[in-house]
Amino acid sequence: MSELLLPSATWASSAELEQRARLLFERSSEALLLVHGDELLLVDCNSAAERLLRLSRLRAAGRRLAEFAEPSQPLDMAALLAGAAPQSVLLRASDGEPIACDVESLLVGDHSAFRYVRLIDRRADDERRMRRRQLAFTLTQMTTLGDADAVLRFLACTLVAQLDGAAAWIWTELDGAPKVAATACSVRPLPSPIEAKLLWRLVDEAATLESENLAQEAWCPDPLAFTAARLPCLALVPLAQGDRHLGAVALLSNLPLDEDAREHLDALAGHAAVLIGR
Fold first, then answer.
1. Where do runs of H (alpha helix) occur along 6-70?
2. Given pLDDT bands bounded at 50, 70 and 90, which one contains residue 44?
3. Is 197 a residue whose pLDDT tops 60?
4. Which of 47, 99, 108, 265 has the fewest beta carbons closer than 10 A?
5. Whether the Cβ atoms of residue 66 and residue 85 lie closer than 8 Å to each other
């Protein structure tokens, strides 16, 4: 949620910052509410919050956050206003379904009258962990029994499937040059020469690299191409075994990765390193 509160200084105008914050708010996979005042009146919510509370943003606007709390487990309003650690509560969706979640709030920039409230659905977190364990088991089987190239392609497709609008490359190094082992793309792909220039620029990176505005990086091979493809964000994870540098995984996306996506990227990069290093 920090991306909403502390936008990158590289975004020039307040209009760009506002548009970016709005996009991050709406497209976040977490349930986010925008509230106002000491009573935490709902001003807006994103699509994830609409699904969680079974309530449209129009019907939610103007209601107090406390109205969604189970009467037997009232919200600690003082702790929320103080920005304390998340509190575990039982909320009620508009259809009466109980929602076990953790609730926390953070100020919106310097405007103390407005806050973002994050609702962390513990059931969804449990399901996400279960899916991750199942995926890890599948990958372990494929790594042991399957063809390495096929597994790497599966890894690239899995990465792209986690995000709406992304492209992924997994590459190895051959005589100091990048050799693409797998690629996947859910949006218009980059022209091959641009892709090649990007890989050549990244091939020497031996540490994790992230950029939230690739087109403004001095080393970006073609800013217009990345802008046109709507892939402004880069996450790079090197593949290594001990001191041996094997290659890297690069993920381009239209939004910065959240914490869950970063963990997923690291886990899949680990499997890719095992395959390439065999």
1. 14-27, 47-53, 57-60
2. very high
3. yes
4. 47
5. no
Residue among 150, 249, 247, 233 at smallest CA distance from 187: 233
50: left (phi over 0), alpha (psi -120 to 50) or beta: alpha
Tell me the DSSP string of 225-250.
HHHHTT--EEEEEEEEETTEEEEEEE
> Contact 245/207 with Cβ under 8 angstroms?
no
- Closest alpha carbon to 68 in 115, 121, 2, 4: 121
Count CB neighbours of 119 within 10 A: 24
Q: In 3D, which of 115, 83, 126, 120 has the Cα closest to residue 102?
A: 120
On whether the CB atoms of residues 229 and 246 are closer than 8 A, the answer is no
pLDDT tens digits, one per residue of 118-147:
888 877 766 666 766 676 667 666 666 667
Give the chain's length: 278
Q: Which residues of 171-204 are buried (b: 16+ CB within 10 A; e: fewer)?
A: bbbeeeebeebbbbbbbeebeeebbebbbeebbe
Helix %, strand %, coil % of the chain (to 5): 40, 30, 30
Query: Comparing C-alpha atoms, which of 101, 107, 112 is closest to residue 83?
Result: 107
* Radius of gyration of the chain from its Cα atoms, rounded to whole angstroms: 21
Q: How far is 13 from 17, CA to CA, in rounded Å?
A: 6
